[in-house]
Design brief:
Helix content: 40-55%
CATH topology of the largest domain: Rossmann fold
Distance between the termini: 64 Å
Largest sheet: 7 strands, mixed
Number of helices: 13
Strand order of the largest sheet: 10-11-9-8-7-6-12
Number of domains: 2
Length: about 350
């Protein structure tokens, strides 16, 4: 049995990790990516993904890096059970997927690695179960593919001490100016071969030459707060957190890169909060605090070092002339154990 386009599909996120999932999907099937069906989704678009799956009704569905929770995971399991020939597998690394992974055996979760690496290490076993006669599990993994996934993993899984992280950062910069499918065209120098030029720092810096200027301009809008708290769950010394608040609309480049930049220049910074006024939501980042736990308490979720949440409607993130008042309300919603919140600058 050979898999064909439409018969087997990949649904994944729309970031650097997604490019890794697509590369693994193509490489392990031995089919050029342009001959496969791959869809890229934001975490907020998973209900549309579910509608796509139900309308097209493929036999084999592969999911990568999608932070499955609650109703979506339940709907997927019901879809799978409705017909005995349907097959479903999910490769993920989000802490927010933990409850669903305990409930469903088709979710493979490893919170230590990025979604693409989880897929790289487990997809062969899945293909062996789905098509044992084809010998997919015997196919060696190309060393270039393994290297590319190492770069993706170092960046997306926040492996701060990895020697590969700087290249992952360059690749993320490149994704700021190209769509995920264009990125894959650059990544794949041939049918299944990785293009070594994708790692060329000079090439990428030439493409994003104005980045430093843009970051400096964005930094002017960052506001800093000190949050005194009595919550022992925070893995920090002392009982005060230093937090930077910035706004997504003011950051021309990747907010992951911008947060990384703030942590580099402010060594005592604990958390960066990127607020999106159009959706009333925020991305929360930290190099040493489990922000997924914080986000989950607020109804959100994500990775230990990068997570997201949504503010209740009574918090006015479109604050007009009351910016500090609005930011105090945001921080009190997130840090319920806060004793005192002071604006630093």
């Amino acid at each position: 049995m050979l898999f064909t386009k439409g018969d087997i599909v990949l649904h994944t996120h729309n970031d650097l990790d997604a490019t890794g999932c697509a590369v693994v999907f193509s490489h392990m099937l031995g089919i050029p990516l342009e001959q496969l069906e791959v869809s890229y989704w934001s975490y907020g678009g998973l209900q549309w993904m579910m509608k796509r799956i139900m309308s097209k009704d493929p036999t084999y569905v592969v999911l990568g890096d999608l932070s499955l929770r609650g109703s979506i995971a339940n709907q997927l399991d019901q879809w799978r059970r409705a017909k005995p020939e349907r097959r479903l597998i999910c490769f993920d690394h989000h802490e927010s997927t933990r409850d669903a992974a305990k409930k469903y055996d088709w979710i493979v979760l490893n919170e230590d690695n990025c979604g693409a690496r989880v897929m790289l290490e487990n997809f062969g076993k899945t293909l062996e179960e789905w098509a044992p006669e084809e010998g997919y599990h015997l196919k060696p993994i190309d060393s270039d593919v393994q290297l590319f996934i190492a770069f993706v993993d170092a960046w997306d899984a926040w492996k701060l001490d990895s020697p590969f992280r700087s290249v992952g950062e360059h690749l993320t910069r490149l994704m700021n100016i190209v769509h995920v499918e264009e990125m894959l065209e650059l990544v794949l120098g041939g049918t299944e071969l990785i293009n070594p030029l994708i790692y060329d720092k000079t090439l990428i810096q030439a493409l994003v030459g104005g980045e430093k200027r843009d970051i400096k301009r964005s930094e002017r809008g960052v506001r800093y707060y000190s949050v005194a708290h009595n919550d022992p769950s925070f893995n920090v010394l002392g009982t005060s957190l230093r937090i930077a608040i910035c706004y997504g609309g003011n950051i021309p480049n990747s907010y992951s890169l911008f947060a990384d930049y703030l942590f580099k220049i402010h060594k005592n910074l604990d958390i960066v909060l990127v607020v999106w006024t159009f959706s009333g939501s925020a991305s929360i980042r930290s190099p040493h605090i489990n922000v997924a736990t914080i986000a989950e308490k607020c109804g959100g979720g994500g990775h230990p070092n990068a997570a997201g949440l949504k503010f209740p409607k009574d918090i006015d993130v479109v604050f007009g002339n009351k910016q500090e008042e609005a930011e105090q309300a945001m921080l009190r919603f997130i840090f319920t154990a806060a004793d005192k919140i002071d604006k630093i600058k």
